[in-house]
Write a structure and sequence with these properties.
Blueprint: E1 5-6, E2 30-31, H1 40-57, H2 64-86, H3 107-130, H4 140-167, H5 174-184, H6 191-227, H7 234-258, E3 270-271, H8 275-282, H9 289-295, H10 304-307, H11 311-333, E4 343-344, H12 359-372, H13 381-409, H14 413-425, H15 427-440
């Protein structure tokens, strides 16, 4: 039998990867990476929409929340257009929808679903109102955006619910059960479905305000930088590039949290089920990461630009930092419309995920070492060792995030196939084979 030949790239890089295993009576087998829930073209379209929106916003003195809403709308519209018109994700079986209506409009169930939806939003609003954290001025842009968009959401909701209800293979979803409980006191029968509903909305309710405010901040910095006269300054453009990359990162996150729709096939399949998985994730975000920073403050106070002895080394080191952050943001963009913490919304195998399972965590943590240089401090070797140990402890939190995410996603057969593919064909596996081959090669002696 001829040996199997493994290939990790696609002939068409814009389409979602597929897995091909042809077996023809002993003929060779071609294996590509497992199918991805999205494709690079979707993320690229989002970047195009972002560029158009930024071009419109330059030199316009709009309120910051309207600026953010503009780039969100343009980015989402471009990605949705590609996913629906080109990839036709709405036709996938994983949506749980049929292409044509399966039943006549049942007003009673649609009303129950709308009540369930309103109860969900009202509960989140009550939490925002009660918890002191959300009364800070920090969240003011988010409240302004909610006030502007909530009327449109309430108007559009009945039409969307009615459309989906007629096509759902299983129309008695969590919204319908919550509505039935409110109207008649009927105890929900699908308790796991309700738990999933609650967890998914906690994820959205927690992360969406943070990401939206971060987007407002970084977008403001980008627009201010574009409105300034051009001046060649390497460090200034380095800082601008950092802001731009982080703006793209949080923008894709916001789009993912806002546009969670079954018709786009980017709905939440499952949510992290363990308390420990939630804790290690939330420890990385405000307000909980205030305690994390207090106990794991690895920074020495030194600026990496001051440590570098020459402009050439500054350019090299700054480029390395940008490269790490670029990989981090590329990882986020690869999710397209499906980015979300603590959830499974379809397995991503394109972009940097075709080579490594956690490119975002690896590149992000590496960038911290390059920026902070904890091993270089004027306080002496002991302090350098202490700060390095602290950063390693922070790295360990992200390692735990990776472990808990893998445990969660391993319940999905698609992820198991992806994990097995990476173990055999990922960057680490290829390096191991390369080193093994080099170690087996005979050493040529001269003379």
């Amino acid at each position: 039998m001829a040996p199997r030949r493994r290939v990790g790239t696609l002939r068409d890089p814009w389409r979602p990867p597929t897995t091909i295993n042809p077996h023809d009576n002993g003929s060779s087998s071609l294996t590509l990476q497992p199918k991805s829930a999205t494709a690079p073209l979707t993320g690229l379209a989002g970047l195009f929409g972002l560029a158009l929106a930024v071009g419109v916003l330059v030199n316009r003195s709009w309120p910051v929340h309207l600026q953010a809403m503009t780039v969100i709308a343009a980015t989402a519209a471009a990605m949705i257009a590609v996913d629906t018109a080109y990839f036709q994700t709405f036709r996938r079986r994983s949506t749980g929808l049929q292409a044509k209506p399966m039943r006549a409009l049942e007003v009673e169930r649609v009303v129950r679903k709308l009540i369930g939806f309103i109860v969900t939003l009202t509960t989140i609003a009550a939490v925002y109102w009660i918890v002191p954290e959300y009364r800070r001025g920090f969240y003011a842009p988010y409240w302004a955006a909610l006030y502007d968009t909530l009327p449109a959401l309430l108007v559009a909701a009945p039409f969307y619910v009615a459309y989906v209800d007629r096509r759902q293979t299983d129309p008695e979803d969590s919204y319908a059960e919550i509505g039935a409980f409110v109207l008649s006191g009927a105890v929900p029968q699908r308790t796991e479905q309700i738990r999933q509903h609650v967890r998914s909305w906690i994820v959205k309710g927690f992360f969406l305000p943070l990401m939206f405010v971060y987007l407002c901040s970084t977008l403001g910095s980008i627009l201010a930088g574009l409105e300034q006269p051009y001046r060649f300054d390497i460090m200034r453009w380095h800082a601008f590039a950092i802001d731009l990359l982080f703006m793209v990162d949080v923008l894709v996150a916001v789009v993912g949290y806002v546009f969670t729709l079954r018709v786009l096939d980017n709905h939440i399949r499952t949510v992290e089920p363990t308390v420990f998985g939630w804790l290690v994730c939330l420890a990385c975000y405000e307000p909980i990461n205030a305690a994390t920073r207090a106990y794991l403050n690895y920074e020495t106070g030194a600026n990496w630009t001051a440590v570098m002895p020459s402009p050439a080394l500054q350019v090299f080191w700054g480029s390395a930092i940008l490269f790490c952050i670029l990989i981090f943001v590329w990882s986020t963009v690869s999710f397209g419309l499906r980015f979300s913490n603590l959830t499974n919304r379809g397995i991503i195998t394109c972009g940097p995920y075709r080579w490594i399972k956690h490119p975002a965590y690896v590149s992000k943590n590496l960038s911290w070492w390059l920026v902070s240089l904890p091993f270089l401090t004027a306080a002496g070797p002991a302090e350098a060792l202490r700060h390095s140990a602290i950063l390693l402890a922070l790295n360990a939190i992200y390692a735990l995030r990776a472990i808990t995410e893998e445990c969660h996603l391993s319940r999905d057969p698609d992820y198991v196939a992806y994990r097995d593919y990476i173990s055999e064909n990922g960057a680490v596996a290829q390096l191991k084979r390369l080193f093994a081959k080099a170690s087996r090669s005979p050493i040529r002696r001269s003379g």
